[in-house]
């Protein structure tokens, strides 16, 4: 996952959203420990769950993202509650296989680009859960407005944020194209970093590809490995899926 190597140092400033934290905390309270987060990144969710007292296992393919998470675990003295593993979510095996809850948040499942990897990931998650354990996966709803965009679009300012060292970053996103055969959207994120005097000190462009899945495709994938799908939400307030926003599937290992 080379794109996140370049992105790790910006990730927490860029993604300081708390919008799904309460949602996952709610399921954590319902299910209990231990909890497994695939594609845990810098620990945006691992840390609040561990601080709430849950035992959390995180898996991620990017050492640079995990390094940020490890630093936070150390600073907050959470080492007894957080276990991090460098692994591909399509091919992982942990010694612990009795998870009460597993989840792949914030569209990270879309970084699996083949059905084989998607099924392999879901099978492994299923096998790591205890009977009755819950699994939540969140992808975006691929509505036709997004899919029909003209290719090679311009960079458009998405947001601006400050880094802890005071540097200011402008993030611009660009739609490159939509590979309709493989259901992969190619985008690019450009980060322009300015120092405290306003001088551009770094500019980098990061590819960001996502393989989209439709609602019934996701349900079939989950069913194929033995999950029972309980709910499909459109957002973290648990409103029902309506073809827009997210596809948040809540499933259970029978
Ligand atoms: C959008 S970030 C999400 C990070 C974190 N879960 C959060 O909620 O902020 C996506 C993460 O997916 C990880 N990732 C991408 N492909 C992966 C794979 N095949 N296996 C494990 N992690 C992967 C990236 O390294 C990155 O940390």
Your description of this structure?
This protein is an alpha/beta fold and 254 residues long. The chain folds into 2 domains: 2-142 and 213-252, Rossmann fold; 144-211. The chain has helices spanning 2-14, 21-31, 46-51, 63-75, 115-128, 144-147, 215-224, and strands at residues 35-38, 56-60, 82-86, 99-104, 129-140, 156-162, 168-179, 184-194, 200-211, 228-233, 246-252. The strands form 2 sheets. A 7-stranded mixed beta sheet has the order 3-2-1-4-5-11-10, sandwiched between helices. Helix 1 (2-14) packs parallel to helix 4 (63-75). The mean pLDDT is 95. The site of S-adenosylmethionine (SAM) has 21 residues, from strand 2.
Largest sheet properties: 7 strands, mixed
Separation of the first and last Cα atoms: 33 Å
Secondary-structure element sequence?
HHEHEHEEHEHEEEEHEE
Mean of pLDDT: 95
Briefly note the CATH topology name of the largest domain. Answer: Rossmann fold
């Amino acid at each position: 996952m080379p794109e996140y190597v370049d992105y790790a140092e910006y990730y927490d400033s860029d993604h300081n959203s708390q919008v799904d934290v309460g949602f996952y905390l709610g399921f954590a309270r319902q299910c209990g420990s231990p909890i497994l987060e695939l594609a845990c990144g810098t620990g945006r969710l691992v840390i609040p769950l561990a601080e709430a007292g849950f035992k959390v296992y995180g898996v991620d393919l990017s050492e640079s993202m995990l390094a940020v998470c490890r630093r936070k675990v150390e600073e907050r003295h959470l080492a007894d509650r957080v276990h991090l593993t460098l692994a591909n979510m399509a091919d992982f095996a942990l010694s612990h296989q009795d998870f009460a809850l597993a989840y792949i948040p914030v569209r990270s499942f879309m970084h699996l680009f083949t059905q084989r990897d998607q099924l392999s990931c879901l099978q492994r998650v299923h096998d790591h859960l205890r009977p009755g354990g819950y699994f939540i996966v969140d992808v975006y709803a691929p509505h036709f407005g997004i899919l029909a965009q003209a290719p090679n679009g311009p960079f458009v300012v998405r947001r601006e944020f400050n880094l802890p060292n005071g540097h200011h970053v402008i993030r611009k996103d660009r739609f490159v194209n939509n590979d309709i055969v493989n259901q992969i959207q190619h985008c690019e994120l450009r980060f322009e970093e300015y120092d405290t005097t306003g001088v551009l000190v770094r500019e980098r462009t990061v590819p960001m590809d996502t393989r989209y899945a439709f609602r019934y495709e996701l349900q079939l994938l989950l069913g194929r490995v033995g999950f029972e799908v309980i709910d499909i939400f459109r957002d973290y307030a648990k409103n029902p899926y309506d073809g827009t926003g997210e596809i948040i599937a809540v499933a259970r290992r029978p």
